[in-house]
Amino acid sequence: MHEYALMQALMDRVGEEAAARRALAVHRIVVRIGDLSGVEADLLESAFEIVRAGTMCEGAALEIERVPATWVCSGCGQPVPSGGRLQCGGCGFPARLAAGGEILLGRIELEVP
Ligand SMILES: [Zn+2]
């Protein structure tokens, strides 16, 4: 049920945005999920079906964008290719995740009066 809680949190954010802009309805929600976030797009979509009922997002489309994992050196900041040893070829420091571990609200399209 991780995805359900996540979707609920995203919907809360969307609701706040919509209220702040006095929107009448939400048309589209774009969610970006990192490849290493551990979130299943399918489960997120099913959660959306449940969570949106009776909300301003009832008629909204959910769009999911995958964000590939990218790594950088924790020492010098150079990009480190994924798939191999996650270590910098230059200075030998371990790589850290630069993108692909997160879930973000990408974009919201609102109907504003
Ligand atoms: Zn380095």
Verbal overview:
The chain has 113 residues and is of the alpha+beta class. It has one domain (2-111): hypothetical protein PF0899 fold (2-Layer Sandwich). The protein is built from two helices and six strands, in the order αβαβββββ. Strands 2-1-6 form a three-stranded mixed sheet, with helices on one face. Strands 4-3-5 form a three-stranded antiparallel sheet, with no helix packed on it. Helix 1 crosses helix 2 (41-51). It is elongated and about 55 Å long. The relative contact order is 0.27. The chain binds zinc ion.
Mean of residue pLDDT?
94
Compute the gyration radius: what is it? 18 Å
CATH architecture: 2-Layer Sandwich
Bound molecules: zinc ion
Query: What is the name of the CATH topology?
Result: hypothetical protein PF0899 fold
Judging from the principal axes of the Cα atoms, what is the shape? elongated
Strand order of the largest sheet: 2-1-6
The span between the termini is: 36 Å
Describe the SSE topology.
Blueprint: H1 2-20, E1 25-34, H2 41-51, E2 61-67, E3 70-73, E4 79-80, E5 95-99, E6 103-111
Parallel strand pairs: 1-2
Antiparallel strand pairs: 1-6, 3-4, 3-5
The structure holds zinc ion.
Features:
113 residues, alpha+beta, hypothetical protein PF0899 fold, 3-stranded mixed beta sheet, 3-stranded antiparallel beta sheet, 2 helices, elongated, binds zinc ion
Summarize the structure.
The chain is an alpha+beta fold. 27% of the residues lie in helices and 33% in strands.
